[in-house]
Amino acid sequence: MGKYETPDYEVVTKENEYELRKYVDFYIVEYENTEDPEVNNAFRTLFRYISDNNKENEKIEMTVPVIQEGNELNRKMAFVVPKKYDDHIPEPNNQNLSVTKFDEGLFATILYSDRSNASKEQKMKDKLEKGYSKQSNVMVAKYNGPATPSFLRRNEIWVRVKT
């Protein structure tokens, strides 16, 4: 995992399995498609974007985590844009992709390993929401590819919280 760029943050406090982090601004390329509420085509579309399917035909380095957010009706998936593109982010060709600024702020997070699934994600969301007053949708951050063994996987639940 060390070979991939991640967003910068500072750990403000750590309690048991929770961390309160202060993230700095970063950019994401986000997939949102109301005709694909389960985001079945999201990863493939985002991968094409970083592979060179953008207005500049530029290959962009993979970053982590891949972030999923949403509700029962519509979900989104996003890649973090490498910092070197902050001044000029290649524009997506696909109408379901948009470049968005992920504003700095405080995020309550909880880390878990193994394969992620809806049941495990809900269990972690419930744990996290008991400790903090949320100011955003809950996000699932995944750090590993599908070939990574379960016991080596890193997943997190994030939620923006009041300062």
Structure summary:
The chain has 163 residues and is of the alpha+beta class.
Provide an overview of this structure:
The protein is 15% helix and 34% strand. The protein is globular, with a radius of gyration of 16 Å. The chain is built from 2 helices and 9 strands. The protein has a 9-stranded antiparallel sheet, with helices on one face. The model has no long low-confidence stretch (mean pLDDT 91).
Identify the notable features of this structure and list them briefly.
15% helix; globular; 163 residues; 34% strand; alpha+beta
Number of helices: 2
Shape: globular
The strand count comes to: 9
Quaternary state reads single chain
Structural class: alpha+beta
Q: Tell me, rounded to a whole number, the average pLDDT.
A: 91
- Pick out the low-confidence regions: none
Order of helices and strands: EEEHEEEEHEE
In spatial order, strands of the major sheet run 1-2-7-9-8-4-5-3-6
| Portion in strands | 25-35%
Largest sheet: 9 strands, antiparallel
Compute the CA-based radius of gyration: 16 Å
- Can you give the helix content as a percent range? 10-25%
Distance between the termini: 30 Å
Itemize the secondary structure elements and their pairings.
Layout: E1 9-15, E2 18-23, E3 26-32, H1 42-51, E4 66-70, E5 75-80, E6 97-102, E7 105-112, H2 118-131, E8 139-142, E9 155-160
